[in-house]
Amino acid sequence: MAGTQRQTLKKSDFFFELPKELIAQDPLEDRSASRLLVLDRQTGRVSHHVFREVADYLKPGDCLVLNDTKVIPARLLGERQETGAHVEVLLLKRREGDVWETLVRPGKKCRPGSRLVFGDGLLHAEVLETVEEGNRLIRFTYQGIFEEVLDRLGEMPLPPYITHKLRDRDRYQTVYARYEGSAAAPTAGLHFTRELLDEIEKKGVQIACVTLHVGLGTFRPVKEENVLDHHMHSEYYQVTEEAAERINRTRQAGGRIVCVGTTSCRTVESASDESGSVRPGCGNTEIFIYPGYRFKVMDALITNFHLPESTLVMLVSAFAGREQVLDAYQEAVRERYRFFSFGDAMLII
C-alpha cells in the first residue's frame, strides 16, 4: 500500500453493529449443522446454506488446509499465597521448561516475587518478571508431569464473550486436533465432523494439515485508531514437508488452496515465498494481513463471523473487500446468524 493509503486505514472502518443476542454461547449438538453463508468475492453474491453443504463447493483437485493445533486447558484459578486473594492465570506460551508467559488477573497485585498456589497445593508458581503489555513470566513447580496436573486443574480458555460454562471440553477442540499448544481454538474447524472430512476426501480433495498455536493476539483488541500501529503477537507455526508438498502440488496442477480459518491462512502465507511456493519448516510469525495485502497462496477461505474492528475482520476484508465483507455481515445479522467462536460459518470463494 502507498503511504497515503496506509494513513487512511482506520480501525473504525471495520466496525459493525452486532446485537448481543447473536453471540453464540453454546456449540450446536451436531457440529456440521451450523449455517453457512457463501460469499462470491468476484460478484458479491451471497447465498445461505447448512455447513455440511460446504462439500458441494469443493472440487476434485482442491486442497483443504487444516490447522491441527490442540487447545490446552490453559485457564488456572488459584490464589496468592501471601493473602489468599483470588487470581486467574491464562497460559499463553511456554518459554522454556516450566517457565510460561501468562496473562494474570488481577495483574497489579502479582508483582515479581509473588507466589501463587492452585488446586490446594498441587501446583505452585512464582512470578519472575513483567514483560511486554503487562504479561507475566511465571515458573511452575509441581510433582509428576505438568500436562497431567494441568489436565486436572485447568479449564478451557473460552473467550470473554462466552459466559456459559462449557459442559464438554472436547467441543472447544476440532476433531482433528493433534499438537498441544493453543490458548484458543481455531474455531472455523469446529464445524467439521470426521464424516464430512471423509466425504470431502472421497471427492478427490487433498487435505493438508499445518500447525499454528493460537496465542495472545486472539484476546487482544486493536486499540490504535490507525490500524498500522497495531502490533501482532508472535505465534509458533510448523509446516511439514508432506503438507508443503501437497499444497505446492495442488497449486502447480491448477487446484485451489482452501484454508480453514484465519490461522491456516496466516500459516501458509507466512511459510511461502514471493512466488507462492510453501516451504516446510517451523518458526514464529507476526504476520498482520489487512486490505492491500497480496495473497500468495490462499484461493478460498472458510471462517467464522468475527468481532467488530478485530484483526480477523481486517484479514477477511483484505481477501474479499471491506465493503463486500461488511455487507455480508449485515446480511448475516438480518438473517440472525450466530456469531464468534461457537457461531456459524462463512465460505469466501
What features would you describe in this structure?
The protein is of the alpha/beta class. It has two domains: 8-71 and 167-348, QueA-like; 75-153, QueA-like (Thrombin, subunit H, Beta Barrel), CATH 2.40.10. 19% of the residues lie in helices and 27% in strands. The chain has seven helices and 17 strands. It has helices at residues 3-7, 146-153, 194-202, 241-252, 262-270, 311-320, 322-334; strands at residues 35-39, 46-50, 63-67, 69-71, 75-80, 86-96, 99-105, 115-118, 123-130, 136-142, 179-182, 206-212, 235-239, 257-260, 281-285, 300-304, 345-348. The strands form three sheets. It has a nine-stranded mixed sheet with strand order 2-1-17-16-14-3-12-13-15. Strands 5-6-7-10-9-8 form a six-stranded antiparallel β-barrel. Strands 4-11 form a two-stranded parallel sheet. Strand 9 (123-130) and strand 10 form a beta hairpin. Helix 6 (311-320) crosses helix 7. The longest helix has 13 residues, at 322-334. It is globular and about 60 Å long. The two termini are 24 Å apart.
